[in-house]
């Protein structure tokens, strides 16, 4: 392979175009440095061949001061280009991980890519894994194929792992033996389905990668929310306490208690049923709670048993659907439970409450469309 790469780079430098071995990706590096080894400049190479800016080059070159020749970097660039990485992709990788240029293609990169292909990954998927962290570090350090096999077992399939890797760029750099495996064992002791936690994606993976002692503290905080560990909501409660401080959680609970006029026990019902409502900002929680109680006229008991209402968008969902409900009620067409309207999918809502009445109320669809845009329909203005 090394001989082939040298032949390709030689052809590129000589400007030859007849060889069928020259792919568009290889031609990206036809400007590779032609200076002799004795005159080799790392900064110039990073700019002229790797595509870094003059501002980026000095930061990267500090880690490459030992390079005296473009030979090994040329081989790495040719290999990455052959995988399907574009020139801009590779520039980003080199800027983030300059030491990738010191990797040995035959001894490190090629065998590890071969192992990934052996797992069933396509080159495009390997490229996505590299780009998810904008680094070849996953390729050049450790047993990447073994790590991916581990995560596939956690996520349940290669596709699930690939989806997660797009949003969690530290997934392959987490320490398995010291952090991930102890955390998984502990979560299983707590009765949690670890695959469900992992599938929370960018919310779940930081949990699995937490310091084991901190994870135990998070579990205790989630317990204090009142959500049973056996509940499907517990994994969401864990995710919330991981991202929201206890001070913020306490403040949001107080806001909801005042706005709804409910007790601690009533609020606990809402949190147990829909702990994700604690992710919303205090301003949104306050505005939504006041709308539901003052405008729609719902009782606190009704709301806490249907806490999803507090998580819906006030402007884009709750208010527009309430206006439609008011029109239908004023026309005497139907009386409907508000939560049924608010919780319906967009398709179901339109077919049930708008399309079905378009003959008897021609402007109903317009009222809804204007309300969804954030304006008050003229028909309903005082």
TrEMBL record:
<comment type="similarity">
    <text>Belongs to the mTERF family.</text>
</comment>
<dbReference type="Pfam" id="PF02536">
    <property type="entry name" value="mTERF"/>
</dbReference>
<dbReference type="GO" id="GO:0003676">
    <property type="term" value="F:nucleic acid binding"/>
</dbReference>
<keyword id="KW-0806">Transcription termination</keyword>
<protein>
    <submittedName>
        <fullName>Uncharacterized protein</fullName>
    </submittedName>
</protein>
<keyword id="KW-0805">Transcription regulation</keyword>
<dbReference type="InterPro" id="IPR038538">
    <property type="entry name" value="MTERF_sf"/>
</dbReference>
<dbReference type="InterPro" id="IPR003690">
    <property type="entry name" value="MTERF"/>
</dbReference>
<dbReference type="GO" id="GO:0006353">
    <property type="term" value="P:DNA-templated transcription termination"/>
</dbReference>
<keyword id="KW-0809">Transit peptide</keyword>
<keyword id="KW-0804">Transcription</keyword>
């Amino acid at each position: 392979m090394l001989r082939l790469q040298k032949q390709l780079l030689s052809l590129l430098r000589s400007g030859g175009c007849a060889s069928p071995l020259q792919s568009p990706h290889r031609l990206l590096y036809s400007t590779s440095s032609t200076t002799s080894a004795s005159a080799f400049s790392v900064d110039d190479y990073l700019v002229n061949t790797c595509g870094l800016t003059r501002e980026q080059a000095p930061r990267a070159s500090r880690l490459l001061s030992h390079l005296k020749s473009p030979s090994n970097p040329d081989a790495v660039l040719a290999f990455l280009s052959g995988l399907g990485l574009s020139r801009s992709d590779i520039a980003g990788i080199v800027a983030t991980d300059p030491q990738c240029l010191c990797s040995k293609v035959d001894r490190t990169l090629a065998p590890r890519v071969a192992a990934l292909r052996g797992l069933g990954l396509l080159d495009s998927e390997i490229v996505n894994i590299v780009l998810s962290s904008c680094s070849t570090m996953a390729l050049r350090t450790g047993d990447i194929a073994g790590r991916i096999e581990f995560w596939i077992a956690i996520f349940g399939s290669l596709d699930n792992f690939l989806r997660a890797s797009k949003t969690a760029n530290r997934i392959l750099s987490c320490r398995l033996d010291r952090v991930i495996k102890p955390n998984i064992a502990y979560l299983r002791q707590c009765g949690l389905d670890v695959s469900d936690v992992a599938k929370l994606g960018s919310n779940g993976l930081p949990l699995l990668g937490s310091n084991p002692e901190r994870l135990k503290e998070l579990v205790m905080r989630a317990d204090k929310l009142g959500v049973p560990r056996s509940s499907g909501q517990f994994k969401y409660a864990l995710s919330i306490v991981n991202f929201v401080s206890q001070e913020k959680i306490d403040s949001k609970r107080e806001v909801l208690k005042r706005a709804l006029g409910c007790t601690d026990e009533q609020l606990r019902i809402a949190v147990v049923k829909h702990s994700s409502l604690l992710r919303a900002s205090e301003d949104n929680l306050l505005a939504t709670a006041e709308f539901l109680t003052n405008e729609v006229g719902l009782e606190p008991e009704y709301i806490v048993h249907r806490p999803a209402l507090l998580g819906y968008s006030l402007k884009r969902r709750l208010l527009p659907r309430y206006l439609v409900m008011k029109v239908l009620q004023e026309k005497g067409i139907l009386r409907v439970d508000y939560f049924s309207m608010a919780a319906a999918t967009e398709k179901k809502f339109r077919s049930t409450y708008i399309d079905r009445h378009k003959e008897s109320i021609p402007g109903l669809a317009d009222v809804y469309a204007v309300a969804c845009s954030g304006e008050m329909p003229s028909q309903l203005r005082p």
